[in-house]
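User: For a teaching handout, I'd like to show students what a predicted protein-ligand complex looks like in token form. I'll give you the sequence and the SMILES for thiamine diphosphate. Please answer with just the structure.
Assistant: Understood, here is the input followed by the structure.
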Amino acid sequence: MELTGAEIVVRCLQEEQVEYVFGYPGGAVLFIYDELFKQDKVKHVLVRHEQGAVHAADGYARSSEKVGVALVTSGPGLTNAVTGIATAYMDSIPMVVISGQVPTSVIGEDAFQEVDAVGITRPCVKHNFLVKDPGDIASTIKKAFYLARTGRPGPVLVDIPKDVSNQKAIFEYPTEVSIRSYSTPGKGDSTAIRHAAQMLLEAKRPVVYAGGGVILSNAATELTALVKLLGLPCTNTLMGLGGYPGTDELSLGMLGMHGTYEANMAMQHCDVLLAIGARFDDRVIGNVDHFAQVPRKIIHLDIDPSSIAKRVKVDLPIVGDVKLVLAELLDVLRSSKQKPDATVLADWWREIEGWRTRGGRLAYRNSDEIIKPQYVIEKLYEITGGDAIITSDVGQHQMWAAQYYKFDKPRRWINSGGLGTMGFGLPAAMGAQLINPDATVACVTGEGSIQMNIQELSTCKQFRLPIKVVALNNRYLGMVRQWQEFFHGNRYSESYMDALPDFVKLAEAYGHIGMRIDKPSDVEPALREAFARKDDLVFMDFRTDSTENVFPMVPGGKGLSEVILSEDL
Amino acid sequence: MRHIISLLMVNEAGALSRVAGLFSARGYNIESLTVAPTEDLTLSRMTIVTSGSDAVIEQINKQLNKLVDVIAVLDLSEGDHLERELMLIKLKAEGEDREELKRMADIFRGRIIDVSGTSYTVELTGSRAKLDNFIAAISSDLILETVRTGASGIGRGERILKI
Ligand SMILES: Cc1ncc(C[n+]2csc(CCOP(=O)(O)OP(=O)(O)O)c2C)c(N)n1
């Protein structure tokens, strides 16, 4: 059957069972928009800025296991999308971005709204394609979805020139994909897995360090079973929160720059470290040389060989899908007669308890006069029963949300960990709310971050997305202010957010409900009222203590045990 | 340490820039890079000469393997291999120098492939060291122009990179 390129694009999306496409029209994609108009299987969500489209597709993917899809026009449409693409790339999020391109006849002539989309996105996509023949569209889109979701997931861009979307070709959606240069790891090496089991059984001070790979491979069940089977201390990265239940007693909480004292100390002093779907990021282990001073054996499970031995030496690498490797490791351990030495492990736990006491778990001093940001998150946790999908922006509020909202399940915590993109939270919440219509979705943000994609409040209105915006408004780019206080002699260069809008009126202007909360005693009632409004977007402007800092803190370039603890302890 | 890495990749627009982009984005050295299609025109064979610590070379290999367009990667320097580079060098050849330069070209098994009243162009293949030695053996004021391809490498004997 002969169809136009644009018809083929839409048919491919239908074949992939895409429910929502997040996008913004323009000249180069008009034929595709025309085809979207003629059908109603694939729903289009009109954002207010292309960055919002990509973040929304991202939030959709993170909260659902599906591939997110965004559609943008050439030139500025594509460049606006780049921050979103890079955000998804850094966190390995499965996504397909379709961009329009100028007609093939004028490519390279600096045509109106022309940019080299494939060139601009090359360093921040898993792969990208420029389609020059309508007959290649179907196979390319099929490949794009396949690449996006298999192996280590990531964003894939498909750039389609306008004339290609208007020419006809035979449409047939391929049932299978073959890319001869691409293969994905499945099971791990069984000998290595048996070896890993032995190392864990003999460890005196074991720690499990689990990252975003656990979430991406849907391995939370396997991870939880493993940790409980051996009684191991488990810490999760910012990207891995919810991969192991945060409220469980074996959880040490998050590690890293703003991780708990016990997690960082245990990480530093363990003798066998089982790293799972994590990449020893600089914000996680701090100074690599300091980390390497303590001898420990490292077992590293990851689907991406290039994540292994990139920053630290690894004693036992296991390349494979985390879920399959963990399942096999569990089988080996369950059938083994050997058990970990309970007294040795108890000693280790005693040591960890000591750190817990010293670090005071996570502590802050509450106040009757001024709203403490941590208190807002604690109440948010209580009122949502710990079961909301929480998206976040970037800054202090993000760290407090990660610390004080205890995630027990995967895919409930959605944040830009790798790129640290301010402006991510609200559009990501839109994607999450659309694909989880019955879930409670809240966006924890700061007055700085929210203004980076505030226009999406309009999209939320159009699509009736009852997101709860929890803005911790400290009148500062708080995380910047904190670094200036600690490391730049209290010189608050350009971190004060002057001339803030009245967020209540702003929310109302967009057709939503706004609330301003100044007093600690109003925090809980306000949250209750807001979350009771099941059908409305409520923007809560919490006026919080502008001097509050995030603790513990391992300063950049320092070792995990060189931590600054709160003076409130 | 210097490494010579061979790779097979799909012969598609943009494949070369993915490899070159990877090296610049991650700060890896490229001493030279050569690329051309193989007997199977859907494939290109590339030889990259690079240097770095063992850890860096391991990362380079892994990162190259990760590129979707790359089919196979072989670090030739990990085993027996051959390495050849082509140089075209134009020399100022006047008066007595003409005879002397011809003799030098012969010693290095070079061929004079273009002659004018005042110049010779010599074609020379060999290892990098041999080409370097030739340049060193010629007085620098006689060298008008040099063009080098960078090394192409292949494994010895049964060491074959093919799919
Ligand atoms: C797009 C972007 N620009 C700049 C930064 C650097 N940055 C990191 S945190 C931060 C402050 C964020 O302020 P706010 O959203 O008010 O949150 P707070 O730290 O006050 O909770 C800034 C500017 C960033 N992460 N992203």
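For the handout, you might add this sentence: The domain at 190-359 of chain A is CATH 3.40.50.1220 (Rossmann fold).
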